[in-house]
Structures are given as C-alpha cells and as structure tokens.
Fold:
Amino acid sequence: MKKYQILLWGIVCDALGYVSYIFPAFDFVWAPLSAYIMTKLYKGKPGKIAAIISFIEEALPMLDVVPTFTLMWIYTYILKQDKKKGH
Structure:
C-alpha cells in the first residue's frame, strides 16, 4: 500500500474512534479492531507498539481525541525518514 493510501486509511480510522462519543459501547469493538488494523498498516516492532497504544487509547474513555493512526503515519513517513537522512 502506498504511503498516502495508508494516511487516508489512518484518517478514516481516527474518525471512527470518534463514533464512541455518540455510541460509547462502540469502543468494545473498535479498540481491538484498531489495534489489529494498526499492525496491518505498520509492520514490525513499531507497528506492534503502535497497536498497543491504539488499543489503550481507544479502550480508555475520553482519549479518543488522540489521532493515533495519523501520528503513527507522521512518525513513520516524516520523522523516521528525517532520522535516516541525518537531519
């Protein structure tokens, strides 16, 4: 999957996290699903760590405002790339 497709999926997933403000029970389904999706979008150790963070963030009330998928995309495709280039 191309990096901007991953960003789009991430934005959609972050938006789905807001559904729990309307339907609080949605978190019971969304928390494990978001963790699973995170591991599919981001491979390896970073993806696993992000999945754990995503699960916790979605499972705990009032933390849904954190755009975990978008932040992970920024880390992966902007910050991590800058480290590789030596900036």
